[in-house]
Write a structure and sequence with these properties.
This protein is 27% helix and 26% strand. By secondary structure, it is of the alpha/beta class. A seven-stranded mixed beta sheet has the order 3-2-1-4-5-7-6, sandwiched between helices. It has a four-stranded antiparallel beta sheet with strand order 9-10-8-11, with helices on both faces. Strand 1, helix 3 and strand 2 (76-80) form a beta-alpha-beta unit. It is globular. The protein binds S-adenosylmethionine.
Length: 275
């Protein structure tokens, strides 16, 4: 599994633009396949609307975007926080009006897409950001939009990449998305065989998905009680707390007033929630 490691030690430093840029500069880009990911290629071949608006976040060298362009897609956006791959893509596609190449932070990006393609972006983010990822994906998708691609179904000793499991993803994306597919991928590249899930999720546009800052949880013991208190509020359909206890993702029938959320946890004065 060495091929997907991007640094020799577990990363305690922030996984920010400087970190990723340093990997590109040092060419420690073991995740880079040098060609379109076969499962993504298979999936793209099933899409008939060539004018679908498609986003690829954390695109890197984005052979997936190249494949889309070669197959007639006309509305592609790619974004990466590291200048080096963005400069390469800008040069490569400088005369192509069908692709927009953005240097920037996915979490600051605004837009609406029919499809967002996941290819080793989720696993590159600190696990503390997983709730934010779900919230942002929901925000960026059009009403009938889909999020599709690959997620690891294993853990790693050295990270990034950060692994996960089908059970974890089912809880994380629950209700905010309808699960069209999340199965062991049959055509992963050899080093990733049997360790990737191919998934296709459709935005649930009947619900509100909100992300809140949270403080006061000091141990995992409190998570269950806080989750239960929120889940008991009428209209709340799913609650997910980030692994550093700093963010709460709430999926609800309608937006819940912040006062109602704060009241639900008022039994402990330490607990504070804000949008
Ligand atoms: C493991 S690499 C994967 C690159 C590409 N998807 C591939 O499969 O070759 C993760 C990529 O995400 C980018 N990235 C990390 N955090 C980001 C953020 N917040 N916004 C945009 N890109 C980000 C990194 O610069 C890096 O190119």
């Amino acid at each position: 599994m060495k091929e997907i490691q991007c640094c020799a030690v577990s990363c305690e430093k922030p996984l920010d633009a400087a970190y990723w840029e340093a990997q590109y500069k040092a060419k420690t880009t073991g995740w880079d396949l040098g060609k379109v990911s076969p499962p993504i290629q298979t999936y793209v071949d099933t899409i008939s609307n060539k004018n679908s608006s498609i986003l690829i976040p954390g695109c890197g060298n984005s052979y997936e975007a190249e494949y889309l362009l070669e197959h007639g897609f006309t509305n592609i956006t790619v974004i990466d926080i590291a200048p080096t791959p963005v400069a390469v893509l800008k040069e490569k596609f400088k005369n192509n009006p069908n692709i927009k190449i953005i240097l920037g932070d996915f979490f600051e990006h605004q837009g609406k897409y029919d499809l967002i393609i996941e290819q080793t972006f989720f696993c590159a983010l600190p696990p503390t950001m997983r709730q934010k990822y779900v919230w942002k994906m929901h925000q960026l998708l059009a009403d009938e939009g889909k999020l599709a691609g690959l997620l690891f179904n294993r853990t790693f000793e050295v990270s990034p990449p950060f692994g996960g499991s089908k059970e974890e993803y089912e809880m994380l994306f629950a209700i905010a998305f309808d699960f069209l597919k999340m199965d062991l991928c049959p055509n992963s590249i050899a080093p990733r065989a049997n360790s990737e899930l191919f998934f296709e999720l459709k935005k649930n546009n009947q619900v509100d998905v909100n992300l809140y800052e949270f403080s006061g949880i000091t141990s995992s013991d409190c998570i269950e009680s806080v989750t239960k208190k929120f889940a008991a509020i009428d209209g709340i359909l799913n609650v997910s707390i980030s692994s550093n206890f700093a963010e709460v993702l709430i999926v609800s029938k309608n937006e819940i007033a912040i006062e109602a959320l704060q009241n639900a946890i008022s039994h402990d004065k330490k607990f504070k929630i804000k949008k």
